[in-house]
Amino acid sequence: MTTLIRARGLTRRYPAPTARLFGPRAFTTGLEDADIDVREGSAVGIIGESGSGKSTLVRLLLALDAPTAGTIEFDGRPVDAGASARSLHWLRRQTGIVFQDPYASLDPRMSVGRIVGEPLWALGIEGDRRARVREVLEDVGLEPDMAERFPHEFSGGQRQRIALARAIAHRPRVLVGDEPLSALDVTVRAQILELLGELRARDGLTLLLVSHDIGVVQNLCDEVIVMKDGRIVEEGPTEKVLLQPQVSYTRRLLASIPVIDPGVGGRS
Ligand SMILES: Nc1ncnc2c1ncn2[C@@H]1O[C@H](COP(=O)(O)OP(=O)(O)OP(=O)(O)O)[C@@H](O)[C@H]1O
Ligand SMILES: [Mg+2]
Q1: Does ligand 1 lie within 6 Å of residue 103's CB atom?
Q2: Cα(207)–Cα(239) distance, rounded to whole angstroms?
Q3: Does residue 52's CB lie within 6 angstroms of at least one atom of ligand 1?
Q4: Nearest-CA residue for atom 27 of ligand 1
Q5: Which ligand is located closest to the Cα atom of residue 253?
Q6: Which residues neighbour 36 within 8 Å (Cβ) at sequence distance 6 or greater?
Q7: What is the pLDDT of residues 123-151, one digit of tens each?
Q8: Distance of CA 97 from the midpoint of ligand 1 (Å)
Q9: DSSP letter, residue 253
Q10: 95 lines ligand 1 (CB under 6 A)
């Protein structure tokens, strides 16, 4: 199977808030020396305590931030996060992202149709864009006519569907979710989880999912990456990592999070 995303030695250091006058330059480690291979069509979960570098990692992989060191290839093509917005169009066309907060991530002044269609216009995607917006709204379980309405008219769960519709409107090959389900209640979470599984099965979408929720990872992901202090400390098939963690940090992390539902293990 094709390796869609390959990163080597990926590192991101942030300047420390209080710079020292003398001595070595102070910095905070966001990510340190990460190697990653994401196979096309796979679903990879990223877990780790707060501040372990999960968001830093996915931002770098999508060239939303530039690494201090290291390389990234997307489908064999080098990714240069420092390049102009236009010269990153090829990458933007193939990737989509959903964030945690369905309230903060949608511009309240824009109609749902404009929000969802925005990537189609911004990336110069050909075809009947209005029709595509209606189609993708249906894909995420909303009414096509909702395109005329505004975000404040929707519940949190509906807004997250809108955010998801926008992330997949341009038919990306990879969808990245940075805690996309955390702000939702259990029922809505289950619905969106099911939806992601369907999109994956139907369109062969590759998923990269940051989550605190082990149930979500177990349900959707076939591989898991475990992060601590900016480093990948364990990775492997989901059942293996969740049921037989090799590293004591992973064991502690899993113990600190409730539910592991054995019923959803064993999916291939
Ligand atoms: N823009 C930034 N400037 C300075 N430090 C940052 C910045 N973004 C992240 N960091 C630091 O990098 C480290 C990793 O942060 P990151 O946001 O990737 O963690 P995370 O695993 O996503 O955490 P959470 O689960 O809380 O979202 C943390 O120490 C954080 O303080
Ligand atoms: Mg984060």
Answers
A1: no
A2: 17
A3: yes
A4: 50
A5: 1
A6: 5, 6, 7, 10, 57, 61, 225, 232
A7: 999 999 999 999 999 999 999 999 999 99
A8: 18
A9: H
A10: no
Looking at the CA of residue 59, tell me the nearest atom of ligand 1: 18
Q: At what angle do helices 156-168 and 186-203 cross, to 10 degrees?
A: 20
**Predicted confidence (pLDDT) per residue in 156-169, tens digit:** 889 999 999 999 99
Q: Domain containing 43 — which CATH number?
A: 3.40.50.300
64 token code pair: 């939303």
Residue 30 Cβ inside 6 Å of ligand 1? The answer reads yes
- Does residue 100 have its Cβ closer than 6 Å to ligand 1? no
Residue 201 is part of which domain span? 3-264
Q: Is 113 in the pocket of ligand 1 (CB under 6 A)?
A: no
Amino acid at site 84 = S
Total domains, the chain: 1
Listed in sequence order, the residues at least 6 apart from 238 whose beta carbon sits closer than 8 Å to its beta carbon are: 45, 217, 218, 221, 222, 223, 224, 265
SS3 5: strand
Provide the pairing of β-strand 69-74 with 3-15: antiparallel
Looking at residues 27-41, what average pLDDT do you find? 96
